[in-house]
Amino acid sequence: MREDGAMALNWDLIGTGDSEALLRPRDIFAGLADRPWPYLRHEQGEVLDEWFDHRRDDRDVVIKQNTGGGKTAVGLLIAQSTLNEGVGKAVYLTPDSYLVKQVRKEAALLDVATTEDPRDPAFLTAQAVLVTTYPKLINGMSVFGVVGDGKEPVDLGVIVVDDAHAALARTEDQFRLRVPAGHEAYGKLLALFAEDLQYQSANAWSELEDKDPTALAPIPFWAWVDKRDEVLKILRPHREERDCKFVWPLIAEVLHLCTATATSKAIEIRPSCTPIDRLPSFVHAQRRVYLTATLADDSALVTDFGADPALVASPITPGSAADLGDRMILAPVALNPNLDADAVRVLARQFADGDRDGDGVVETEPVNVVVLVPSDWAVEAWKPYADRTFWVGDLEAGVKELQGGHVGLVVLVNKYDGVNLPGNACRLLILDGVPRPLDGVERREAVALADSPVRLAREVQRIEQGMGRGVRDGEDYCAVLLLGANLAVAIHDRRHLALFSQATQAQLKLSRELAQQIKGEGLDAVRQALRGCLGRMPQWTQRSRRALAEVRYAEHGTVRAEAVALREAFDLAATGRTAAAADRVQRAVNDLGDGDKALRGWLREQKAAYLHLTDSAAAQQALAGALDDNPFVLRPVNAAPVHIRAAVAQARAAAEFLADEYQDGVSLRLGVQKLFEDVVWGDEDRSDDAEWAWQKLGRHLGFVSSRPEKQYGKGPDNLWALTSARQAVTELKTGSVTGTIAKKYIDQLGGSVRWLAKHNPEVKALPVMLHPSRISDNEGTPPAGMRVVTPARLEKLKEAVTSYAAALASSPGRWGDEQAVAEQLAHHKLTGDRFFDAYAEAVRTS
Question: How far, in Å, are 176, 324, 354, 374 from residue 442 at the CA level?
Answer without folding.
Answer: 12, 32, 42, 16
